[in-house]
Amino acid sequence: MMEVAVSVTTRTEKLVNALLAxxxxxxxxxxxxxxAPSVHPTIFEFNxxxxxxxxxxx
Length: 58
Hints:
The protein is mainly α and 58 residues long. The protein has one domain.
């Protein structure tokens, strides 16, 4: 039973590592592509829009 648990944990760790690597690569790719105008805005561009103060604030 212990051997099965070990194999499951290593499998989940590999999956989590793969997801983290994919997220890091996509974030790096989005940051490198940010200056170029794109039809589909990235998540980072949406975050930048949210950070800006509203027009009535000034």
